[in-house]
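Known limitations

Files may contain more than one protein. Parsers should not assume a single record per file. Below, a two-record file is shown to illustrate correct handling: read the sequence, read the token line, then continue until end of file.
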Amino acid sequence: MHPNDQPIGIFDSGIGGLTVAHEVSSLLPNESFVYFGDTAHMPYGDKSIELIRSYSKGIVDFLVHHHQCKAIVIACNTASAAAYTTLRDELKGAVPVINVIDPMIEKVINNDNISSVGIIATKTTILSGVYQEKFKRRKPSLELHPLATPLLAPMIEEGLHHNQVSSVVLDEYLNNPELTNIDALILACTHYPLIKDEINAFYQGRIKILDSAIVVAQKLKGILTNENMLAQRDTAGKGIFYVSDYTEGFVHAAKLFYGSSINLKPIILNEH
């Protein structure tokens, strides 16, 4: 196999990162990828940084050494904040590592039309201050409006979107005074692309909705192009999907997040 035809590794604490895998597959249809959802340890949000790094290292070791992945995408906000620097430094010069936070930061600070940005995410991501810290360091003039929206992820996982439930919950969150007078809204959770159209409808196209799954896929394409690492094959790539804990609930949720039925393979990794 040509080295460029090796797969891309994508991992998340659960199945939410399948929205990233879906966008990667759509934007780079010739690329193959291996997805790992650490469903046995989800959610990462209530774990220590050291433990998240340990889980992440084990997953990346599996993706790089067992599947010879040519690039790694951390499709999880918590793992991106906790483990990105460590993984990047360990794989430096060998395998590019892309996280789900920095590409969004770059996109926003390079857009002069955005002076006030809203950030919606899980409570853990907002309390970590990772987006706020990076924005303040890179573009101090940017007005930041972070808002924890803890009901959205479980609501989406239960399939309670595009109905009255999601309408009421979204209205409550998006009418929050914290989100007034914003130019753009960052969907800083990999679950949120599934309700992007509902959020867009709320704002009636008045503000820019920034989908982290799309932004990360675009960043990955840019890196693979610049490094001459794009797949050489003319045929469509394939996806392999692993989870560390298998239930029928995950199968149902995976279809929801990826947009079509997929075959989840249960596998237990040796933990560090």
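...continuing to the second record:
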Amino acid sequence: MTSSRRVLCLFGPTAVGKTDIAIEIASQIPADLISVDSTLVYRGMDIGSAKPDEETLAAYPHQLVNIRDPADGFSAAEFLNEADAAVEEAFKRNRLPLLVGGTMLYFRAFRDGLADLPSANPKVRAEIQTRGEKQGWDVMHNELMEKDPIAGAQIHPNNHRRMVRALEVLQLSGRSLSSAWAEQQGAEERLKCHMIPVAVVPESRPLIHQRVERRFEAMLEHGFIDEVRSLMSQSHELLPAFRAVGYFEVWQYLNNEIGYDEMVDKAVAASRQLAKKQFTWLNDWPEVTRFTGTNVTDVAAQILQYMESVAIISGPLGKS
């Protein structure tokens, strides 16, 4: 039914219907759904993340959903370990691993691997940050160019966060960031697999803007504010998980930092900005096959036909 060690990667901008399309595909072929979403990992963050309901998750289980409490945090490195294990488990069961989501940083980590780097050291990081603010970031960038010219050439002088990290790695490990990059193993090397990237994109940018606005309105109607209020009762500090699009703006509203209308406007604007960034990531991903359309069944059928045409699956299609 499935060709050995193929991985289907399904991504696209927010609110385009990726999850529903993946579920429709999984209803037609034996596929294991693996979520690539930095918010779906958290328990209790359901409405604002557009998480499938319990009944859907029971019928179509998603790996990497509801695996952390918001207070625990979740890094790209943790995602990579969990995703690799889920893919291997799918291969063992002779099922197609179907990675689906919109966190493009996670997709890139899966595709390219992550460098083996020392953990962040708050003291060292603060010292470098202070030096940059006092001496000037041009001076810091020149220092990086001297010590690690490859990383220095790829990190813009205005990207202070990445510059600090590169200098931090040098100070903590004595090795350059670029040397660690050179040792990264992508998915095809790590897992001895072949990635098939497909993207679902809207027919126009205005269409995705409309869908973003309608979806946020629906979230509010289904109790999103009460969801965030409940999360705030469990933790009064602004956890990294709560900086997710939508959650942060509702958090500000409940803290009386902004009014209701401003909250709505800011959340919709943040979602549109997220979609723009996702398009940028998508355009930088080589050899992506794109599919357009608003009907979930039709788009899923197009993807299934494509998968059969490139021998990812062979007919007749069976049920998972």
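Parsers that stop after the first record will miss the second one. For reference, the second record is described as follows. The CA atoms of residues 84 and 307 lie 22 Å apart.
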